[in-house]
Amino acid sequence: MKRLDCLRAVYDQLGDCLVVTIMGAVATELQSLGHKPNFFYLQHAMGLGSSTGLGLALCLPQQKIVVFDGDGSILMNLGGYSTMARYRPKNLVHVVFDNESLLSVGGFPTATSTGTDLEGVARASGIPRTRAAHTIEEFSSAFTEAMQTNELTSMVAKVEAVGPSGYVTGLALLENRFQFKRYIEKSTTETRRHGEERK
Amino acid sequence: MPVSLTNSGVVYQALKKCGIGLVSALPETWLVHLIRMAEDDPQMILVRLAKEEEGVGISAGAHFAGVKSAMLMQNHGFLASVNGIVSFAQLYRIPLLMLISYRGHFGERDPWQTQGGSATEPLLRALGIPYSFLDDPAKVEKRIAEAQTWAYSSLHPAALLLTRELMWEEPAP
Q1: Do B54 and A52 touch (CB under 8 A)?
Q2: What is the tens place of the pLDDT at every residue in A135-188?
Q3: What mean pLDDT is predicted for residues A103-114?
């Protein structure tokens, strides 16, 4: 299973949620499918993708948040699993693409290649829903279910250690950052307005 | 416990006046009252961390969501957060407000705090993070407000050092 195919399989479900990705192949491949203003690519600070998603999820409880994480990144912040589990926001879907490799620096194997089971770590940290996927069908149905379920989910997708030939895209980091914040400002204002209309 | 309850309250009320809606924290002795105040405040989102660097991501998420936040941490937590501060908050221009308890400086009796005490200000300067001291309860509100104002106008992290003078009431000998 390839990460790009996973992303392609669920891309249509990413229109209304807020998406945070980590750096490297995940960011580049999601952009290759089509950037949207509700996507934020954290192009460094490995380990903090899940923390960013948690901050968003706690501050915007009505908004679905999706984090596309990786094994190399989450291994730098395993404590982040326990913090997510502690607050278990119902609107957060955390996906780890586990290719057992630090692919972007030349493919050095991570500890998931020698037996560390990230779904097991997530479960033992107290994440209420965990899933593992090995095929596109499994991934697609587990993701769809997680998006529809009102409970914190952490998924591990076992993917091949293949990615794009390069990682720098035409989207400047700050352009992405300001666009993402403006998108949220606009969508929360609209939500508030609709809320007032309902009163 | 000789941590000043009164001055912790002054700091907490100053954060409230600045519109802080989320506080991330990792407990340390000087911060216990502040964390309890956040915990008892139904209007405050308190996020207890496993490691302080997580707070950078959480504050960035809060900023994107339009919520003002503050990080409460010991200076050793600041040391542990440096990559997140540099390659998230500085790289992406996030207005972090960091309240850092300044352990290990003059008056410190715990030997294990002293090395971090000596590294704190040089590191803030090396990172180009402006800072001021919270040492006088009469000036706490103004200094926190000014640091926050600067963090938002510059879109950059700003630090306030919680000093022994403010936070610690030496027990009578």
Answers
A1: no
A2: 999 999 999 999 999 999 999 999 999 999 999 999 999 999 999 999 999 998
A3: 91
User: Would you tell me how many other CB atoms lie within 10 Å of the CB of residue A34?
Assistant: 9
**Residue-level pLDDT at A105:** 84
> Nearest by CB to B60, which of A44, A50, A55?
A55
Q: Decide if A184 touches B, using CB distance below 8 A.
A: yes
Record the pTM.
Answer: 0.96
Q: How far is A143 from chain B (nearest CA, A)?
A: 22
What are the φ/ψ torsions at residue B11 (nearest 5 degrees)?
Answer: -65, -45
Q: Where are the alpha helices (DSSP H) in chain A?
A: 3-10, 25-33, 49-59, 71-74, 79-87, 118-125, 136-148, 173-198
Residues A51, B91: C-beta atoms closer than 8 Å: no
Which of A60, A86, A188 is opposite residue B48, by nearest beta carbon? A86
What is the residue-wise DSSP string for B25-66? E---GGGHHHHHHHHH-TT-EEEE-SSTTHHHHHHHHHHHTT
Q: Is the pLDDT of residue A38 over 90?
A: yes
Q: Do A46 and A23 form a contact (C-beta atoms < 8 A)?
A: yes
